[in-house]
Amino acid sequence: MKNLLYLIAFLVTLPSLAQQPLSLAERLGYSKTDKLLIIHADDIGMAHSENVATIHAIKTGVVNSTSIMMPCAWSTEVGELIKDMPNLDIGVHITLTNEWHTYKWGPVASKSEVPGLVGPDGFMYKDCASVAKNASPEEVEKEMRAQIEAALKIGIKPTHLDSHMGCVFYGRPEYLVSYLKLAKEYGIPAMVNPQMMEGIIRPNAALFKGIDIDNIPVIDHVAIASEKIYDEIGLDEYYTRLLKDLPSGVTVLLNHIAFDDDEMQALTTKFTHWHAGWRQEDFDFFTSKKAKDLLAANNIKLITWREIGQLK
Q1: Which interval of the chain is the signal sequence (predicted)?
Q2: pLDDT tens per residue, range 36-76
Q3: With contact defined as beta carbons under 8 Å apart, do 58 and 128 qualify?
Q4: CB–CB of 254/38 below 8 Å?
Q5: Tell me: the pLDDT tens digits for 178-220?
Q6: Rounded to an integer, what distance in angstroms lies between the CA atom of residue 109 and that of residue 95?
Q7: Which CATH architecture has domain 24-309?
């Protein structure tokens, strides 16, 4: 009788065991305890300084991913600079805002087609809240598509989508629908983390019809330095601690790389954070021997969006 009860208990638990989904690490062929990392430089295309520093950090440092801001004046240069890098992991950094004081850009799509993305000064708004208030989901989808198509026209084959300042993620849920819809259409992954999945996508599942939300590759952790971190402990210490204590699973570590030169100083004028000096510190750390040694000492494996995009 006891053996029969054990057998019944086992059979009752068997379906729940079988239904446990694989982690993203396991889907990629790793164990769920492996530490997997994408070291991702945002904002390539924003400036010449940003372009050359980012590419240098990829070729000589540990940065292994980037994404391009197509509305910016220096985006077309990227197509020329990466011609000898056919396997570069480069996505489209969907850009709906323009936060700088003296450096301005507008949408890639015609302003007449996306008027809700154009502020009173004729350029994109400075913040995501203004975008969410003024830009319709249809306008945002049109602009997203225009940015992807513009990248394709300069020879970039995007490996993924992500979002400048998170405006796609934390604007209207419909923006996220278009984001995932376009990722599916172009056959590439879009960056989604657990907070987006559980806080926005699943609660609004009816909006996401036509998208297999259960099969979206969800990044386990997204790490980025904050203004508080910059002021209180500094970037070098933050990145050092992060790599020493990196959790298992897939982490995307976001940084912003450029040189502290005249161009970036002028572009980021009046900013106390995210400025030329900050970006130089990012460059210095991610091209350092220290960064390489930390990856090796902590058994961290670098992966790319290209690998995630190959998942079925």
Answers
A1: 1-18
A2: 999 999 999 999 999 999 999 999 999 999 999 999 999 99
A3: no
A4: no
A5: 999 999 999 999 999 999 999 999 999 999 999 999 999 999 9
A6: 12
A7: Alpha-Beta Barrel (3.20)
